[in-house]
């Protein structure tokens, strides 16, 4: 069973609630590999050239939760109305939110491995007043984004036993997946757990 290894929440204060996810060291745009679904279903995320997210409500607050997973995460609950998945290569191994019209002082999120491809899910929802029916539901709104990253594996393992310090396992493509001890960066364990052996 996969687990969330680390996470943090960042507030976006862009005037219109729009922001990019960029390389945390260079600030360069990240190129995203999009799925085959029609892009009009994902009007709130632009993935042609860069990882651009937009709020559904420009007058509300925006919060982004970054998560690093040990493998494909479980499904989110149905309250997350808008979802997208794809892959992204991160040269520095760190990602960061970048506002268009707001502060650039955002914390970086360390994925633990540089210049590798990551699977990523983006989920979004808008929260309003659903507590007091005597007041309109839009008297306040907040937009939530959840970004879940895990190491992209082009040949997923056929069987996943509990790993030991020097474990290896077969994959469906016939190559061997070798277990690596998590590295410790900035005082926390990070991913880079499995890689296809050459």
Describe the structure.
- By secondary structure, this protein is an all-beta fold.
- The chain folds into two domains: 4-152, Competence, DNA-entry nuclease inhibitor, ComJ (Substrate Binding Domain Of DNAk, Chain A, domain 1, Sandwich), CATH 2.60.34.30; 158-198, no CATH class.
- The chain contains no helices and 16 strands.
- Strands 1-6-11-10-7-3 form a six-stranded mixed beta sheet, with no helix packed on it. A five-stranded antiparallel beta sheet has the order 4-5-2-8-9, with no helix packed on it.
- It is globular and about 55 Å long.
- It starts with a strand and ends with a strand.
- Mean pLDDT is 74; it is low at 165-198.
Task: Describe this protein with a few key phrases.
globular, Substrate Binding Domain Of DNAk, Chain A, domain 1, 5-stranded antiparallel sheet, 6-stranded mixed sheet, disordered C terminus
Question: Short description, anyone?
Answer:
By secondary structure, the chain is mostly beta strands.
Number of domains: 2
| Spatial gap, N to C terminus | 26 Å
Give a quick account of the main beta sheet: strands, pairing sense, barrel closure: 6 strands, mixed
Strand adjacency order, main sheet: 1-6-11-10-7-3
What fraction of residues sit in β-strands? 35-45%
Identify the CATH class of the largest domain: Mainly Beta
| CATH H-level homologous superfamily name of the largest domain | Competence, DNA-entry nuclease inhibitor, ComJ
Query: How is the CATH topology of the largest domain named?
Result: Substrate Binding Domain Of DNAk, Chain A, domain 1
Shape: globular
Q: Strand tally, please?
A: 16
